[in-house]
Amino acid sequence: MLSSPLFWQIAIPVLLIVLGFLVGSGRERAHYRSILAREDAMRDLPIISIRRVPEDLPDLGPAPDTRMVRGNAVISVDYFKRFLAGLRMLFGGRVTTYESLVDRARREALLRMRQQARDLGARMIVNVRMETASISKGGGSAIRSIEVLAYGTAAIPAGSGRIS
């Protein structure tokens, strides 16, 4: 049985799918743990979508400095998720295998934007916007990676001296 070519033609793809599932799931869980820890550390730096810096914030001073900040993340789809998404697309319905991919990319981009603002000494980020794109190598409709760009305006207390 083990010497049968048919056995190996079936066993190798199944083994690769299982390996992809185990490695991909482990890396995704580790990335989520990292995201949760960094989000908790950045809770003191609010991000809001209003267009202007509120004028009644005492810690910013009368005329805060502003700088554009951005965060960019590209997250790749593992083979197992691509396989499951292909099956889901045959039958229709939610493609939950890609939902966590989009969530991780969005949260990672926001964290990178927050870190850039924190490095500038910002107290908040206003006018936050996000752009997304799917990246497909070789064309076709298969999603290989997702990119999320988050950008906004960092409000830095006037005279803080941390703008470079």
Describe this structure in words.
The chain is of the alpha+beta class and 164 residues long. It has one domain: 2-Layer Sandwich (Translation Initiation Factor IF3), CATH 3.30.110. The protein is 46% helix and 22% strand. It is built from three helices and three strands. It has helices at 5-41, 79-91, 96-120, and strands at 65-76, 124-135, 145-156. The protein has a three-stranded antiparallel β-sheet with strand order 1-3-2.
Write a short abstract of this structure.
This protein has 164 residues and is an alpha+beta fold.
Give the C-alpha Rg.
22 Å
Give the strand content: 15-25%
Uncertain ranges: none
CATH class: Alpha Beta
- CATH homologous superfamily assignment: Hypothetical protein apc22750. Chain B
Number-wise, the strands total 3
Rounded average pLDDT: 83
Task: Give the second-level CATH assignment, the architecture.
Answer: 2-Layer Sandwich
The rough form would be described as elongated
The strand order across the widest sheet is 1-3-2
Compute the number of structural domains. 1
Helix residue percentage: 40-55%
Class of secondary structure makeup: alpha+beta
Number of helices, counting only DSSP H or I runs of 4 residues or more = 3
What string gives the helices and strands in order?
Answer: HEHHEE
